[in-house]
# Entry
Amino acid sequence: MITAHLPAGYCVFQGCEAFSGRLIPYAMAAAIIGAILPDFDLLLFYLVDNRAFNHHRYWVHIPIFWAAIAVLGFLFLSLSKVHKSYHLTFSVFLFSIFVHLCLDSIVGGIMWLYPLNDTLYKFVVVPRIEGYHWLASFIFHWTFLLELMIWFVASLLFILNFKHKKRAEY
Ligand SMILES: [Zn+2]
# Structure
């Protein structure tokens, strides 16, 4: 996924609040940060490792790492005296991370079974358009329509939410 992680995070935020039926503290921040956080490994990818391997092999793109973070995080929250509603905030963050990894599994590939094996599992292999930048192969592939759909749904939710809030002010 190239462009749609941010709007996917917004959809996660809207979905989680609608599903829980309550306001979750810092839910939007948790969802948006979770949606884009794994791709900060691109800094390492470009600036340190000089694109030596697929950036989906960094630990922030590996599900078992986030499973460990989930266990440690909920343990910490349970032992500390923070309000129970922050469990929901953390859940929103983790769900957003999970959605990021699922979206990256469409064409990018995720090591879902690591450490059992290091295969990057993906649903669709995008053929390279010879003579063009690698980005063109993805933008002109049908899977890019999924990204546009996510942008569309997120925009719709944003507009509806904005109108709803405006009405509530009166
Ligand atoms: Zn990613």
Q: What stands out?
A: The pocket of zinc ion is lined by residues 38-39, 61, 100, 104 (CB under 6 Å). The mean pLDDT is 94. Residues 5-169 form one domain.
